[in-house]
């Protein structure tokens, strides 16, 4: 479709029953209506809307409006002023849009074929031809090239519109960025080309051709400051189809020194969000630099050992027995036989030495099944290991690794200086300090240094020279060593035997210690090494002491029984050494795609949908291959069918007038929001498969920012949605609401003596319950009777009522189940309405009401009857909706003083309205609480945001 057609194409929005998508991100509004001012949005939005009983206090005592008449008038005046400003802004925007449209129409008439060929989408690259056009690497651009025409492939890093005829673009190739200038030029660069360029998505892979020129002022926003490209040709090679959680440019923004943590990254986007969107983060100059440095470390390690006549080997990662102990190995099924992933190449390295290889090294994967969720541990990492035969002393090997490490340090700071400086922009640190002669301190002397400094271990006692150092001990020792020796790099020798594996040679003078050492960088251990036991009998005895049967390692033992030379070795984790050199603060940032105990989370079981035609994973317009329906012609799935497929208790209220519904044109998913001032309050999870939350949320947020400029606050979301917003998008999350769920099969209520007594009393007074046929519409006579009784109930209630929506018993009848109670005179005295929500969530007790004059026990009778009906229908869960939690629970990115302030505010609200009284009625029904979450972007809440929620 041409630029002009895209600009002039009409949009179409419809009602929620049969909306059509007008664009990729399509809003569909319900009928307008003023938002209710209620604490409901903050404290009780779970939506079992009403429960009434003579003994049930629940939350039905609170005022629904909660504002004085003067306050309401002020709010109305403010709202009208906001609407007036919005109307004037819209009129101005429409006027500007019309002028731009006319201008482009005129440009289209004069645009030649040659001008059209200068921009647009290239065909799919399928290696059909090879063009002789030379494409350059931006890293090779120099000032001497000014005036030359160049062509290059890149990613679009940023777009800045500078007017109708000028646009600045920033192009990125890995570490290098350069500014591009595209300006309208009669007969050459058309207005349509400029318009097309300024609407390009960042992240597209582009082919650029232009002339290098000197900018009027140095370009600070690009790594190449003194040259820019005057663009003459601009084409898309690959489009970025999906929205992204953050751009590379946003990821590279740093924060000021007074805002950053003591150690770690100094940027707005947190590491957890980056790691959850790893591909985007790896595109940044910082990540590109980290892994160039990592590659350099591996290369220098390899080259240094090659020069010392070491042989590189490649050992198997499947082993028949654990290397050191069975507790920290991954067990695998090897054709019905037990096997393990290698904890290290230790066994194979020693077997190679026994095979007379003399000197070997390996760079390969290491697996550790340790459930350690720390900043310096991984379950899979890259090991740099070496082993060598020694002549007289294991210090021969210590000398080798000492010199190799110092060669690595020197190489990093010389060959990779540019990359180091790029990393320092986000991870400020001083260069690593090391001495020409490395300090080598006996372990017990290092412990003495610690104790002399006044240091105490975690138990408040002096550190023992016969036990390994804890992490905090290591860090403090690093500080002591820096003060005493002015170095970040040192070696501790002669470690205690209790801290070493079975194959370590004991010290000849004191068997409590061993011929082993650790190497430390910035106060943290990076290498363990030492002399190995090469005498078969001694080795077997040590194996038995740690519970290893030598027969299970027969192949390993053969080398020693047949005679192995004295030897020593060590191993270092590649990711750890890179983390410490660059002071990254988190080892995961030094792993391309990290693996830790939280990797590979279980995926939820996908249950059969109630409405396959409303499947967002396989929407109708994508089911027939080759018959893609145009976006503007797509019929969105019915909103209430989506609720029955994917909804929670909150979503059953989306049919109310106050809710606006946005539809995702690509999947048919729905998101609800309520505009309140400058905020968009978003209740409940998106209506789509949980696996699509991230995609749909990012698309919605981009639409919201572009089209409404409202600040989003998401409320009443489940754990999966909270994970998406908190982990992947870096939002702050907290919980102060809990959803109360019941397993109807447990029949907890009927086993309660008080409930059973009330049910018997209602039955004795002639109360009868009728199940309305779910397959047929509710008779009008019953509707009239029920609605009349609801009016009686509303007229008789006292105080306030907190809820998400107005009572509408018969909205969306198709997905509701009705149970009516009548007294002995035939008067309707109670009703229970169950709403179908996502199959995994079961049903919602949408309404359970007993009306004025109902016999005692009516509410218990009709509610337990409805729960039994749910159990008979195979429903595993029924939710009564949400209620206020006793305390505020912090979630992602919530800590410190702000949590204390929010907790105090929340406790005050709870106390003021007495909301922590757990419903006695729900307790008797067997309800258990599941937390619901509130989420908002950094700096996105504040006092005004809280007021918006409470309104």
From TrEMBL:
Segments of skewed composition (Acidic residues): 55-64
Molecular function terms, GO-annotated: aspartate-tRNA ligase activity; ATP binding; RNA binding
Record domain Aminoacyl-transfer RNA synthetases class-II family profile: where: 291-601
Residue ranges that the Swiss-Prot or TrEMBL entry lists as coiled coil: none
The enzyme's E.C. designation: 6.1.1.12
GO BP: aspartyl-tRNA aminoacylation
Enzymatic reactions: tRNA(Asp) + L-aspartate + ATP = L-aspartyl-tRNA(Asp) + AMP + diphosphate
Biased composition (Basic and acidic residues): 85-114
Enzyme class: ligase
The entry's keywords: Aminoacyl-tRNA synthetase, ATP-binding, Cytoplasm, Ligase, Nucleotide-binding, Protein biosynthesis
UniProt feature, compositional bias: Polar residues: 12-31
Cell compartment(s), UniProt: Cytoplasm
Disordered as annotated region, ranges: 1-114
GO CC term (a single one): cytosol
NCBIfam families in alphabetical order: aspS_nondisc, PRK05159.1
Identification of the protein by name: Aspartate--tRNA ligase, cytoplasmic
Organism, scientific name: Capronia coronata CBS 617.96
